[in-house]
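From: lab user (bench 3)
To: helpdesk
Subject: output format question, protein + fe (ii) ion

Hello, I'm new to running complex predictions and I'm not sure whether the block I got back is the full result or only part of it. Here's what I submitted:
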Amino acid sequence: MLITRRSFIKKMLYSVLGFLGLSGGGYYYARYIEPDMLTTQQYTWKHPKIPEAFNQIKIVQFSDIHLGFHYSIDQFHNLIQKIKQEEADLILFTGDLVDEPQKYHFNAKIPSLLNELDAPLGKYWIYGNHDHGGYGTEKLQEVMSNGGFTLLKNEVKEITITDSSIMLAGLDDIMLGSPNIGGTLNQLKENIFSIVLVHEPDIADRVKDYHADVQLSGHSHGGQVRIPLLGSMITPPYAEKYVDGKHLISDTLTLYISRGVGTTRMPYRFLCRPEYTVYTMQSN
Ligand SMILES: [Fe+2]
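Helpdesk reply: Thanks, we reran it on our side. This is the complete output you should expect:
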């Protein structure tokens, strides 16, 4: 019998969990408990290029929801309520709203929930590989736009408070989109604080060649299942080098990777809780 990739991964997971003595209880935890243990990651950006007008500006990043793959509208509703409570100035979504757009039954609740989010400096999003996969490109654009989110597809926006600005760039998905890295990031300026949104974290090794100060990514799900000593069980392409958390890529670029909210391929999380991220800007 042919062993599919999914069943191979499952078998490997079961054997590792078994090896560690995490039988029934551990499986139940990874399948039903941890995937729902949403947590908040907090970072402060203190940087000489952050203008005084942006001091204490709060940014929320959420990523990788994968609606439809063991992730319901009710869970999405709870996520949106939590993000609302943050009262962020700027809200950023870094891709993968739906797991399989061609099979998913979209309903009007998604844009209306997205519309509940309010951020005075704007709500922006970029494509992830699952958004483009299975002819989801146009559908996702419609849903996100109806939810009040502006797509950054190889685009740069200037975010301004009174006379001061920062730059926000978004790249199209690296795996299934048409990313224009040079054409987009060449617009960034050395003296203006710049945030780059790109779904796949490993592309940071190219982003560092431009005037970018921070890169925000998702895609990895933090590995989703992390076994002590063995590390992450699943690292998708372009999330093999940088999997989770904060990485100093160069003298100027810092990469932050969200573990994301949902799951894909396997409905488990282990030592890798779902999260959204809050960044607070600090001028010197
Ligand atoms: Fe994802």
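A quick orientation on your result: The chain has a mean pLDDT of 93. Let us know if anything else is unclear.
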